[in-house]
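Design a sequence for this backbone.
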């Protein structure tokens, strides 16, 4: 069962003054939705429903090489089938505006928003061009396997001309970020030591996840970020970027547990984990699938059918 301990209270106290506070469901359409996404959706809609929040739907298709419109369409169908409807930018709004036509919550349509944010940081001397490839960095910086290498600041020191590469990094001065995750408690992160200057646009001109997510979380006025604990290590650098961009109050964070395979590996599209649509095509009902996901995520002790509207009750006292 969910042990809310004090976080439900913290959430209520911190957000009491803000009626209709906002959180978001922000999937990347790089494959079909699987059980891991469903568990994230249950946390997002569950916590929002239990504590008076609103859900923003955002399509995180910043990576043009991996995202596909057919995955976005499938994702919208799956959400509708499951019964999760966003309060802001609902499914129908994405269907009404095709990619490229300027939907306010589809990342591939936000080039101007990211340009403006980059320009602001550039004006303040915080941005530099970088010609290092990922491979250069991995080779140059000693790091344990599976760990991210810290960018050593090579191009910060060399003053690469802007014309040499599309890639841009933002300087992260040494700073410590402390935040109280609603589930995981106090966290202390030092982004400049952990990842070094953060890449905001890559050498192909694509905006990075770290930058797009911070700019959009500000644009969408989000109060609470609810996501899997695999993203916990990104939080410090996102807080630092948000501070540089002038965000006055940081969001609250809730990093939930991830579903794993028996051997401990993460569910993922790359592992060919069963897509929800395959289960649907095999005749499974949405209510049965929601029950199954709730049990696997530790939100229910034994399986029962569950509708999207029942999910908030799993999170209230
Ligand atoms: N788009 C990211 C994903 O699908 C989630 C981003 C976030 O929650 O910050 O994993």
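Sequence:
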């Amino acid at each position: 069962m969910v042990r809310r301990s004090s976080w439900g209270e913290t959430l209520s106290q911190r957000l009491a003054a803000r009626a209709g506070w906002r959180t978001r469901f922000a999937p990347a359409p790089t494959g079909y939705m699987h059980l891991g996404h469903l568990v994230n959706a249950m946390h997002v809609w569950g916590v929002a429903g239990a504590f008076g929040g609103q859900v923003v739907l955002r399509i995180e298709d910043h990576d043009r090489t991996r995202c596909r419109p057919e995955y976005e369409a499938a994702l919208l169908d799956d959400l509708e089938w499951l019964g999760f409807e966003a309060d802001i930018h609902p499914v129908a709004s994405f269907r009404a505006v095709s990619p490229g036509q300027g939907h306010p919550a589809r990342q591939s349509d936000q080039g101007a928003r990211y340009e403006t944010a980059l320009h602001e940081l550039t004006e303040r001397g915080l941005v530099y061009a970088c010609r290092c490839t990922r491979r250069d960095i991995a080779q140059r910086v000693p790091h344990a396997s599976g760990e991210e290498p810290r960018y050593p600041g090579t191009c910060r020191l060399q003053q690469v001309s802007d014309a040499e590469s599309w890639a841009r990094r933002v300087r992260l001065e040494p700073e410590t970020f402390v935040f109280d995750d609603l589930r995981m408690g106090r966290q202390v992160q030092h982004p400049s030591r952990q990842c070094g200057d953060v890449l905001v646009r890559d050498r192909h001109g694509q905006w990075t996840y770290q930058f797009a997510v911070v700019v959009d979380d500000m644009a969408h006025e989000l109060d609470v970020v609810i996501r899997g604990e695999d993203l916990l290590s990104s939080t410090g650098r996102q807080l630092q970027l948000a501070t540089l961009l002038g965000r006055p109050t940081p969001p609250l964070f809730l990093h939930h547990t991830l579903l794993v395979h028996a051997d401990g590996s993460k569910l993922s599209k790359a592992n060919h984990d069963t897509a929800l649509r395959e289960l649907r095509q095999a005749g499974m009902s949405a209510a049965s699938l929601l029950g199954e996901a709730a049990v696997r995520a530790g939100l229910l002790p034994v399986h029962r059918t569950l509708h999207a509207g029942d999910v908030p009750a799993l999170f209230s006292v």
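The domain at 8-117+181-187+213-314 is CATH 3.40.50.620 (Rossmann fold).
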